[in-house]
Amino acid sequence: MIVVLGCAEARAIIMRHDVPEEKYRVDASVFPALVDLPREGHGVLVAPFWVVTVAREVAGRDIKEVTINGVARPVAKVVIHPGYKETPKSLYTGDAAPLMTFERDVDDIAMIELKDEVTDVQPAVMYRGDGEAKEVAEILGKGSTGNGYVGEYPGSPRRGTLHRAYTRIEATDGRWLKLQFHTKREAEPLEGMPGNGDEGGPVLIKVHGTPVLVALMCRDYAIGDLASYPFFHYDGETYNTRISYYAPWIDGVMAGSDTDKVTQ
Predict the structure, then answer these.
(1) What sign has the CA pseudo-torsion 216, 102, 145, 110?
(2) Contacts with 9 (C-beta within 8 Å, 6 or more apart), sequence order
(3) In 3-state terms, what secondary structure has residue 16?
(4) Where are the domains of the chain?
(5) CA–CA separation, 122 vs 82, rounded Å?
(6) How far, in Å, CA of 144 to CA of 80, rounded?
(7) pLDDT tens track for 111-135
(8) Domain 13-255 belongs to what topology?
Protein backbone atom coordinates (compact mmCIF):
# COMPACT_ATOMS: atom_id res chain seq x y z
CA MET A 1 0.00 0.00 0.00
CA ILE A 2 1.62 3.24 -1.14
CA VAL A 3 0.18 6.69 -0.59
CA VAL A 4 1.47 10.17 -1.41
CA LEU A 5 1.79 12.89 1.16
CA GLY A 6 5.43 14.48 -0.04
CA CYS A 7 8.40 18.31 -0.78
CA ALA A 8 8.93 19.94 -4.00
CA GLU A 9 12.67 19.18 -3.76
CA ALA A 10 13.80 16.02 -5.52
CA ARG A 11 15.05 13.64 -2.86
CA ALA A 12 14.37 10.03 -1.85
CA ILE A 13 13.95 7.65 1.12
CA ILE A 14 12.09 8.51 4.33
CA MET A 15 14.74 9.68 6.81
CA ARG A 16 15.33 10.49 10.44
CA HIS A 17 14.05 13.92 11.47
CA ASP A 18 17.24 14.68 13.43
CA VAL A 19 19.85 13.96 10.71
CA PRO A 20 20.64 16.39 7.85
CA GLU A 21 19.35 15.23 4.47
CA GLU A 22 22.78 15.53 2.86
CA LYS A 23 24.06 12.71 5.08
CA TYR A 24 21.77 10.36 3.17
CA ARG A 25 22.72 11.59 -0.29
CA VAL A 26 25.07 9.34 -2.32
CA ASP A 27 26.55 9.16 -5.80
CA ALA A 28 25.30 6.58 -8.28
CA SER A 29 28.74 4.95 -8.20
CA VAL A 30 27.97 3.38 -4.81
CA PHE A 31 25.68 0.88 -6.56
CA PRO A 32 25.94 0.99 -10.37
CA ALA A 33 23.62 -2.04 -10.72
CA LEU A 34 20.64 0.12 -9.71
CA VAL A 35 18.13 0.31 -12.57
CA ASP A 36 15.76 3.23 -13.17
CA LEU A 37 12.42 2.26 -14.67
CA PRO A 38 10.61 4.91 -16.76
CA ARG A 39 9.15 7.72 -14.60
CA GLU A 40 9.45 5.93 -11.24
CA GLY A 41 10.48 2.68 -9.62
CA HIS A 42 13.66 0.65 -9.81
CA GLY A 43 15.13 -2.73 -10.54
CA VAL A 44 18.53 -4.36 -10.07
CA LEU A 45 20.86 -5.76 -12.72
CA VAL A 46 21.55 -9.39 -11.76
CA ALA A 47 23.06 -10.69 -15.02
CA PRO A 48 24.43 -9.02 -18.17
CA PHE A 49 21.05 -9.33 -19.94
CA TRP A 50 18.68 -9.40 -16.94
CA VAL A 51 17.08 -7.07 -14.43
CA VAL A 52 14.94 -8.15 -11.47
CA THR A 53 12.18 -5.87 -10.19
CA VAL A 54 8.79 -6.01 -8.50
CA ALA A 55 5.85 -6.97 -10.68
CA ARG A 56 3.70 -4.06 -9.53
CA GLU A 57 6.10 -1.65 -11.24
CA VAL A 58 5.91 -3.28 -14.68
CA ALA A 59 2.49 -4.99 -14.86
CA GLY A 60 0.30 -3.18 -17.37
CA ARG A 61 3.13 -0.89 -18.50
CA ASP A 62 4.82 -0.91 -21.90
CA ILE A 63 8.46 -0.83 -20.82
CA LYS A 64 10.54 0.05 -23.88
CA GLU A 65 13.78 0.87 -22.08
CA VAL A 66 15.39 1.19 -18.66
CA THR A 67 18.36 3.24 -17.51
CA ILE A 68 21.49 1.68 -16.02
CA ASN A 69 24.60 3.69 -15.13
CA GLY A 70 23.07 6.70 -16.88
CA VAL A 71 22.60 4.84 -20.18
CA ALA A 72 19.24 3.95 -21.73
CA ARG A 73 19.01 0.20 -22.40
CA PRO A 74 16.35 -1.18 -24.78
CA VAL A 75 14.11 -3.93 -23.39
CA ALA A 76 13.50 -7.24 -25.14
CA LYS A 77 10.75 -8.59 -22.89
CA VAL A 78 9.23 -8.51 -19.41
CA VAL A 79 8.45 -11.72 -17.54
CA ILE A 80 6.02 -11.49 -14.62
CA HIS A 81 5.80 -14.24 -12.04
CA PRO A 82 2.67 -16.34 -12.69
CA GLY A 83 1.69 -15.93 -9.05
CA TYR A 84 1.34 -12.15 -9.33
CA LYS A 85 -2.16 -10.65 -9.16
CA GLU A 86 -3.06 -6.98 -9.39
CA THR A 87 -4.68 -5.67 -6.24
CA PRO A 88 -8.40 -4.86 -6.66
CA LYS A 89 -8.97 -1.13 -6.28
CA SER A 90 -11.79 -1.83 -3.84
CA LEU A 91 -9.21 -2.98 -1.26
CA TYR A 92 -7.51 0.42 -1.09
CA THR A 93 -10.23 1.91 1.11
CA GLY A 94 -11.59 1.08 4.54
CA ASP A 95 -10.09 -1.57 6.79
CA ALA A 96 -6.51 -2.48 5.91
CA ALA A 97 -6.87 -6.16 6.85
CA PRO A 98 -8.34 -7.42 3.53
CA LEU A 99 -5.65 -5.56 1.58
CA MET A 100 -2.85 -6.97 3.73
CA THR A 101 -4.29 -10.48 3.46
CA PHE A 102 -4.53 -10.26 -0.32
CA GLU A 103 -1.03 -8.90 -0.83
CA ARG A 104 0.53 -11.40 1.57
CA ASP A 105 -0.08 -14.19 -0.96
CA VAL A 106 1.00 -12.34 -4.11
CA ASP A 107 4.29 -13.18 -5.86
CA ASP A 108 5.43 -9.61 -6.49
CA ILE A 109 8.44 -10.14 -8.72
CA ALA A 110 9.30 -9.80 -12.41
CA MET A 111 12.27 -10.04 -14.74
CA ILE A 112 13.26 -7.70 -17.55
CA GLU A 113 15.38 -9.05 -20.39
CA LEU A 114 17.55 -6.48 -22.15
CA LYS A 115 18.19 -6.51 -25.90
CA ASP A 116 21.89 -5.84 -25.46
CA GLU A 117 24.43 -7.16 -22.98
CA VAL A 118 25.48 -4.74 -20.24
CA THR A 119 29.27 -4.72 -20.22
CA ASP A 120 30.00 -1.54 -18.26
CA VAL A 121 28.31 -2.53 -14.97
CA GLN A 122 28.97 -5.49 -12.70
CA PRO A 123 25.68 -7.27 -11.90
CA ALA A 124 24.64 -7.52 -8.26
CA VAL A 125 25.19 -10.78 -6.41
CA MET A 126 21.94 -12.44 -5.30
CA TYR A 127 21.73 -13.77 -1.75
CA ARG A 128 20.72 -17.43 -1.65
CA GLY A 129 20.88 -18.23 2.05
CA ASP A 130 18.43 -17.94 4.93
CA GLY A 131 20.36 -15.89 7.48
CA GLU A 132 19.14 -12.37 6.63
CA ALA A 133 17.19 -11.76 9.85
CA LYS A 134 18.76 -9.25 12.26
CA GLU A 135 21.37 -8.14 9.74
CA VAL A 136 21.72 -4.41 9.08
CA ALA A 137 20.34 -3.71 5.61
CA GLU A 138 21.24 -0.94 3.20
CA ILE A 139 18.46 0.51 1.04
CA LEU A 140 18.86 2.82 -1.97
CA GLY A 141 16.32 4.70 -4.03
CA LYS A 142 15.34 7.88 -5.84
CA GLY A 143 11.69 7.99 -4.75
CA SER A 144 9.82 10.48 -2.60
CA THR A 145 11.15 11.60 0.75
CA GLY A 146 10.10 12.76 4.19
CA ASN A 147 10.91 12.04 7.81
CA GLY A 148 9.64 9.79 10.55
CA TYR A 149 7.68 12.50 12.34
CA VAL A 150 5.69 13.92 9.44
CA GLY A 151 5.78 11.12 6.86
CA GLU A 152 6.19 11.98 3.17
CA TYR A 153 6.60 15.66 2.40
CA PRO A 154 3.68 17.11 0.39
CA GLY A 155 4.56 17.22 -3.31
CA SER A 156 7.68 15.08 -3.02
CA PRO A 157 8.50 13.69 -6.50
CA ARG A 158 8.78 9.96 -7.11
CA ARG A 159 12.01 10.32 -9.11
CA GLY A 160 14.66 12.46 -7.48
CA THR A 161 18.17 12.25 -6.08
CA LEU A 162 19.72 8.95 -4.98
CA HIS A 163 19.74 8.43 -1.22
CA ARG A 164 20.89 5.59 0.99
CA ALA A 165 19.66 4.55 4.42
CA TYR A 166 20.11 1.64 6.81
CA THR A 167 17.81 -0.41 8.99
CA ARG A 168 17.87 -3.79 10.67
CA ILE A 169 16.02 -6.73 9.11
CA GLU A 170 13.30 -7.69 11.57
CA ALA A 171 12.30 -11.07 10.18
CA THR A 172 11.88 -13.24 7.12
CA ASP A 173 8.76 -15.19 6.20
CA GLY A 174 8.82 -17.17 2.98
CA ARG A 175 8.48 -14.70 0.11
CA TRP A 176 8.81 -11.62 2.34
CA LEU A 177 11.54 -9.82 4.25
CA LYS A 178 10.35 -7.40 6.95
CA LEU A 179 11.93 -4.02 7.69
CA GLN A 180 10.85 -1.54 10.37
CA PHE A 181 11.58 2.20 10.63
CA HIS A 182 13.21 2.33 14.06
CA THR A 183 13.63 5.32 16.32
CA LYS A 184 15.34 6.10 19.61
CA ARG A 185 17.82 3.54 20.89
CA GLU A 186 17.25 0.93 18.16
CA ALA A 187 17.79 3.28 15.21
CA GLU A 188 20.80 3.19 12.92
CA PRO A 189 22.70 6.51 12.55
CA LEU A 190 21.22 6.82 9.03
CA GLU A 191 17.98 4.94 9.73
CA GLY A 192 15.35 5.11 7.00
CA MET A 193 12.55 3.41 5.12
CA PRO A 194 11.40 3.30 1.47
CA GLY A 195 9.20 6.06 0.05
CA ASN A 196 6.88 6.17 -2.96
CA GLY A 197 8.92 5.52 -6.10
CA ASP A 198 11.52 3.38 -4.33
CA GLU A 199 9.68 0.14 -5.21
CA GLY A 200 11.96 -2.39 -6.87
CA GLY A 201 15.05 -0.79 -5.37
CA PRO A 202 17.66 -2.91 -3.59
CA VAL A 203 17.81 -4.13 -0.02
CA LEU A 204 21.43 -5.17 0.57
CA ILE A 205 23.46 -6.82 3.30
CA LYS A 206 27.20 -7.45 3.41
CA VAL A 207 28.52 -10.99 3.25
CA HIS A 208 32.27 -11.22 3.81
CA GLY A 209 32.44 -7.50 3.07
CA THR A 210 30.58 -7.73 -0.26
CA PRO A 211 27.10 -6.17 -0.68
CA VAL A 212 24.59 -8.80 -1.80
CA LEU A 213 20.96 -8.39 -2.86
CA VAL A 214 18.56 -9.86 -0.29
CA ALA A 215 15.29 -8.17 -1.28
CA LEU A 216 13.52 -5.60 -3.44
CA MET A 217 11.65 -2.77 -1.77
CA CYS A 218 7.98 -3.47 -2.24
CA ARG A 219 5.08 -2.49 0.06
CA ASP A 220 4.05 -0.99 3.39
CA TYR A 221 2.15 -2.76 6.12
CA ALA A 222 -0.93 -1.10 7.60
CA ILE A 223 -3.48 -1.82 10.31
CA GLY A 224 -6.84 -0.21 11.00
CA ASP A 225 -8.42 2.31 8.66
CA LEU A 226 -6.35 3.05 5.56
CA ALA A 227 -7.47 6.68 5.44
CA SER A 228 -6.00 7.44 8.87
CA TYR A 229 -3.04 5.04 9.05
CA PRO A 230 0.25 7.00 9.46
CA PHE A 231 2.23 5.69 6.48
CA PHE A 232 5.97 6.51 6.33
CA HIS A 233 6.23 7.31 10.05
CA TYR A 234 8.48 5.90 12.75
CA ASP A 235 7.71 2.27 13.66
CA GLY A 236 6.19 1.71 10.23
CA GLU A 237 6.83 -1.69 8.63
CA THR A 238 7.61 -2.59 5.05
CA TYR A 239 7.48 -6.01 3.41
CA ASN A 240 10.01 -6.60 0.69
CA THR A 241 10.29 -9.26 -2.01
CA ARG A 242 12.82 -11.81 -0.74
CA ILE A 243 15.44 -12.78 -3.31
CA SER A 244 16.51 -16.12 -1.81
CA TYR A 245 12.91 -17.37 -1.94
CA TYR A 246 12.63 -16.53 -5.64
CA ALA A 247 16.17 -17.44 -6.72
CA PRO A 248 15.07 -20.74 -8.38
CA TRP A 249 12.42 -18.90 -10.41
CA ILE A 250 14.89 -16.15 -11.35
CA ASP A 251 17.41 -18.77 -12.47
CA GLY A 252 14.71 -20.53 -14.52
CA VAL A 253 13.68 -17.35 -16.30
CA MET A 254 17.27 -16.49 -17.19
CA ALA A 255 17.80 -20.04 -18.46
CA GLY A 256 14.67 -19.79 -20.61
CA SER A 257 12.79 -22.55 -18.81
CA ASP A 258 10.27 -20.47 -16.83
CA THR A 259 8.68 -17.78 -18.99
CA ASP A 260 4.98 -18.62 -18.86
CA LYS A 261 3.84 -15.05 -18.19
CA VAL A 262 5.63 -12.82 -20.70
CA THR A 263 4.05 -9.39 -21.12
CA GLN A 264 6.04 -8.05 -24.08
Answers:
(1) positive
(2) 145, 153, 156, 160
(3) coil
(4) 13-255
(5) 28
(6) 25
(7) 999 999 999 999 999 999 999 999 9
(8) Thrombin, subunit H (2.40.10)
